[in-house]
Amino acid sequence: MNAVDLARRLIGATLLVRGAGGTIIETEAYSRDDPASHSFRGPTARNASMFGPAGHAYVYRSYGIHLCLNVVARPGEAVLIRALDPTTGIEAMAARRNSPMLCNGPGRLTQALGVRSDDDGMPLDGPELFIGLSPDRPDLLVGPRIGISRAQDLPWRFGMAGVRGHSRPFPP
User: d(Cα 106, Cα 154) in Å, to the nearest integer?
Assistant: First the structure.
């Protein structure tokens, strides 16, 4: 499945990281030929897991500060998990964040869930990291990606309609 299709499909899925998690409510797709993608210039030591098996984690540090969690779609394509509606392990998430804003943004989300650098490349179907797709297909919001300087016009950011907690509002 390509990254755009996977980004749409992950909305409404359950994400658990070592027992803490909830429902994915916002994603962003990055493809192999996308100048905003880490894979655009080919494999490197930093992005190697992005070229690995589908359904594995690609974890990287953004701006040298925050970790970001992605799901590999196919080699060189991945989906950034931007926001989550927390439902499980909320006390642990709150303790890690020390803020009422738990999972509305990729950096907050990974901090709340306790995502680690060594989660990079791990399968997302195991006891440590798990994504379970929902049989339901929620209504989607669609908009341009945010926080990037190239290919900003692509409508590859997806959100669950009718919920709060997106990293930023979607355009009307």
Answer: 19
Rounded-to-integer distance, Cα 81 and Cα 41, Å: 22
- Give the residue-averaged pLDDT of 72-88: 96
What is d(CA 46, CA 127) in angstroms, rounded to the nearest whole number? 25
Q: What are 39's two structure tokens?
A: 């894979």
Tokens (6 digits) for 153: 């016009």
In this prediction, residues 61-83 reach a mean pLDDT of 91
The gap from C-alpha 49 to its chain's centroid, in whole angstroms, comes to 15
Task: Kindly report whether the global pTM for this prediction surpasses the value 0.85.
Answer: yes
Tokens of residue 85, six digits? 């509606």
**3-state DSSP: the chain helix, strand, coil percent, rounded to 5?**
20, 35, 50
Strand-pair partners of 41: none
